[in-house]
Structure formats: structure tokens, C-alpha cells
User: Fold Zinc ribbon domain-containing protein from Nonomuraea mangrovi.
Amino acid sequence: MKAAPAEQKRLLDLAELDSAADRLAHRRRTLPELAEIDEQSKQFAQLATQVIAAETEAGDLAREQTKAESDVDTVRTRAERDQKRLDSGMVTSPKDLSSLQSEIASLHRRQGDLEEVVLEIMERREAADSKVTDLIAKRDEIASTRGAAEDRRDTALAEIDKEAADVAGRRSGVATEIPADLLALYEKLRGQYGVGAAMLHGGRCMGCKVTLSIADMNRIKAAPHDEVLRCEECRRILVRTPESGI
Ligand SMILES: [Zn+2]
Assistant:
């Protein structure tokens, strides 16, 4: 393949721009914010599940409390009714009076026990409610930390996009100065090796960093200036410059 030395040198500019694009793509994939956001999303999901569990527990206790309070009311109403009967003086038989008094006493004990139950549920409910509040605060804090990391990620991505667009624009400009067959070879080699062309610098291929043998250097010296050369080691296009050492 033949191409003017100036066109061959443009391949080095192209390779540099392609490396810049690769570095930007690498930066995009490895932004520290991506790992942070991932970790924070896991924590958020865990806390959201814990909030639901705690809210369910608090809701169950609220219903339990209502039920226990209604049990207290039922017993109190019965005791009040019995007390009214006792106070009315309508129960006169000593046996009935004694039975009524003993029922009232028993209802009062029962009411006391049930009120204890209500108090115990209220304490548990208070603890459950404060657990809900704590978990919601933690969940919201993680959400806000993640929001901040997302903002930083978006800022970094926007910057990378801007740089990538600049590199792509410059690359299209350079590519138009390279003949189609040389560009196609470069692209093929870039696909295979990541970098399609390298400078011959001081007798060394800058693609694979191998110093060329005297025989190879003699072959290169003898080659016409417009001959497209390849590195024998890495197969990349080898571009001659004034610093090539020939
Ligand atoms: Zn090489």
C-alpha cells in the first residue's frame, strides 16, 4: 500500500485522538460515583424494606391497642352497670348482694389487668413508632446522599461527553485527510490491537516498544517514502518521522 508521508503522519494524530477517546470511555465506565450510587441504592432498598416492616409492626400494635382499650371499656361498663344496680337498692337478698359485690370486685381486678395490657402495648407501640421515625430518617439521608452522588456523576458525565464530542469532531477532520484504503487498514488494525498505527522513534516501534533489528531498519531505510510499512512485531502501521533514526 502507498500513501504520501504527510498522510501517513496524520495516522499518528488519529491514533492519539483514538487513545483520548478510549481514555474518556474508560473514565465514563469507572467513575467512582457509579460504585457509590450502586452501594447507596442497595442500602436504600434495605432501609425501605425495614421501614415497611417497622410500619407494619407499628400498625399492628395500634390495632392491638384499640382492641385492648375496647376490652377495658366493656369491663368498665359492666362494672358501672353492676354498681348502679347495687346503689339502686333494688337487690335486697344477701346472697344476690354478695354475688353482685364479688362480681364488681372481680370486674375491677379484670379492668386493672386489662389496663396493664394497654400500657404494655402503648410502650411497645411507642418503641415501634420511634423505630419507624429513625428508619425513615436513615432512608431519607441515604436518598439525599445518593442524590448528591447522582448530581456529581451527571456533572462528570456531561464533562466527559463534551470532551468526547470535541475529540470526535477533531477525529473526523483528521480522517478526511487520510486516503480511504489507508484509513480502512488503520481501522482494521485498531479493531484488532486497540491502536492501529505507531511512530518509529529512534529505531523503536512506539506501539509495541520493540527495538527493530538492523535488518529491519535497513529494509525500512531502503523502502520508498510513500510505502506503508508495518511493524514486524505488532503488525501496526509503522509511521516514519524525522525522529525515526533512519
Ligand atoms: Zn510494533
Remarks:
- Strands lie at 197-201, 204-205, 229-230, 237-240.
- The mean pLDDT is 97.
- Residues 94-175 form the longest helix (82 residues).
- DSSP finds five helices and four strands in the chain.
